[in-house]
Amino acid sequence: MRRSVQLSLVAALTLLSTPVTADARSESDSLHDRIEHIAHEVVGGSTAGMAVSVVDGSRIELLRAWGHADDDGERPLGPDSRLPVASVSKVVTSLTALTLHEEGTLDLDAPIERSSGVRLRDERATVDRTPLTGRHLLTHHGGLAESTLMPPSVDDGDLDRPLSDWLERHPPVPGHPAIGMHYSPLVGYALLGAAIENATGTDFDHAARRAVLDPVGADSATFEESTDPDDAVIVAATDGGFEATPWPRVPETPSASLRWSARDSAALLSALTVRDGALPERVVEEARTTSVRPHHGGGGHTQVFFEDHRRGVRVLEHPGANGVAWLAIVPEADVGVFVAVTSHETAAMEATDAVVDAVVDWTIDAGRAQPAPAAPAPAIIPGWLPSSRPAIPTGTFQERLFTGHGPEKALRSLLGQVRVTADGHDLLMKGRRLSPEGEGRWCDQAGCVAGRISDSGITVLERGDRGMLEQTLTPASTWDDQRTIVAALAAWGLVVLTIAIRAVWRLVRGIRGRAQGHSLAPGIAVSWAASTTATLVAVVMVPLGPLLWGSSSAATPHAAALWSLTALATTTVALALAWVITSVRRWRTVSTRHVVAAGMCAALALPMQIYLVDWGVTLPG
């Protein structure tokens, strides 16, 4: 509260001591009108509530909320209502780590295993096993492979234990060379949190409060599990209004558990846009200075924010849950903005992005920020990142957001692959032709890509045409190549269609009273076709559940769902073996053409059967 009063007094004195021109008033009114219009477009429709804060240096330019904090429309949402902000939590976690490092409590340059006390399960090639430090984790360069859509199930006691306990039971896995960015949704910042707890001897919430939240005056912000009935709840739009969709309970508190108000966000943004001593000057500088920028020349990363360009203006920002919340700074203008909605609906999340754009437009219109022509930016590679060499990135590459469990591996292989081929000096990628621009980099109008090779000889593809959260793509094995999987799917589909047609034909003959000839276990074949179809559908639906039905604790794949998937995959194997054994016993009783046809079906179905086992046999975490 003390910090909030100070901000209000500073703002009041600034307004009293500074002449306000008609142009300044109209510019301010224009910003308010733009954001008001955006809010009215979505509040009450795709979201129950929306909150915004805009700071102009030490002055709070806008602090406003619209709509309601609940699904029943009984509690109005206000600037002091706390909202869940998902991955915006990582901003506070990063600032906490940097502040503790600055005061000498935490060493961000030490191996994270030593500073956190957590042992990693390193799956990288031996020569690529460079030590991972806090710096790597702050910029998503730890090469961690984690389950994005299917996190481990959470027990009631997990949220009360030290972070190191959770991480010891679910060891972090460095799976990729640390030469490119691999976004770490949860575990990377949980590791940082464990290091913070280990260094301070307190739980993470108290450490973040002492280092960042209290000094800046974010009085109501907390990482602790909330029981306050006045807090805003995430909702889903229904035909008649809204229904509550509880925020997922994750033990990786530093990654996603922050709840704060628009007023809290304004206090933090003020500390990042005005060097007033609330945060150490060095920490503010590290939050605003790009420390890593990939070779592809796209957006980089400070040790707190992603670097982006909106309307040609450099913006530092961090989203939460794909746009439920945004926290952004326009460093050129010393302007900050926070916006959050209480819904996962697409229109609501697009509105938060539009608010950030409106603020950027406002700084341009006021002459506070100058748009620059789009051009590939020079790479920034700090000394603590592993070295790499330029390479020509040809072949099939895949995104690493989906990993871990078999179903996520299936989605990654089916949906997240890019094939790159060479045509002379150019590269061809998804209908694009990219021309060389410097060693190891190729560009077109949409952006650039770069190829780098690790010490172990792994060539990775850095892609810079998709903005923030861009992933470094790693090679896909021949077995995981999308074309191989599609071929296996096509062959399996042909077998299933053949079995179905044969079953219908036998059924029609039976209805007409015609004699049935000998066949190789048609009942088992039909059962196998049905079970493999069910397994394939389940493999796709289990990880997509949180996306299709909203992120809630109920939507997160439960252990029972994973066991059911394992049972389905096992059933397909049992039926396949039963069919083979039965066919071997009966092959003398059927015609040669039946035996040949059955053998061909078995050969065509085998690859898909192996895939189903690989994707479906997954033990609950």
Give descriptors for this structure.
8-stranded antiparallel beta barrel; disordered N terminus; 17 helices; alpha+beta; 621 residues
What does this structure look like?
- The structure is a single chain.
- This protein has 621 residues and is α+β, with helices and mostly antiparallel strands.
- The protein contains 17 helices and 19 strands.
- It has helices at 2-17, 22-42, 89-102, 112-116, 134-138, 163-169, 187-200, 204-216, 253-256, 262-273, 281-288, 346-365, 406-415, 482-511, 522-548, 559-586, 592-616, and strands at residues 49-56, 59-67, 83-84, 235-238, 241-244, 259-260, 306-310, 313-320, 325-330, 335-341, 389-390, 395-398, 417-423, 426-429, 432-436, 441-444, 447-453, 459-463, 472-475.
- The strands form 4 sheets. An 8-stranded antiparallel beta barrel has the order 12-13-14-15-16-17-18-19. The protein has a 6-stranded antiparallel beta sheet with strand order 2-1-10-9-8-7, with helices on both faces.
- β18 (459-463) and β19 form a beta hairpin.
- α3 packs parallel to α7 (187-200), α3 (89-102) packs across α8 (204-216) and α13 crosses α15 (522-548).
- The longest helix is centred in the last third of the chain and has 30 residues, at 482-511.
- It is globular, with a radius of gyration of 28 Å.
- Mean pLDDT is 87; it is low at 1-22 and 551-555.
Summarize the structure.
The protein is an alpha+beta fold and 621 residues long. The protein has helices at residues 2-17, 22-42, 89-102, 112-116, 134-138, 163-169, 187-200, 204-216, 253-256, 262-273, 281-288, 346-365, 406-415, 482-511, 522-548, 559-586, 592-616; strands at 49-56, 59-67, 83-84, 235-238, 241-244, 259-260, 306-310, 313-320, 325-330, 335-341, 389-390, 395-398, 417-423, 426-429, 432-436, 441-444, 447-453, 459-463, 472-475. It is built from 17 helices and 19 strands.
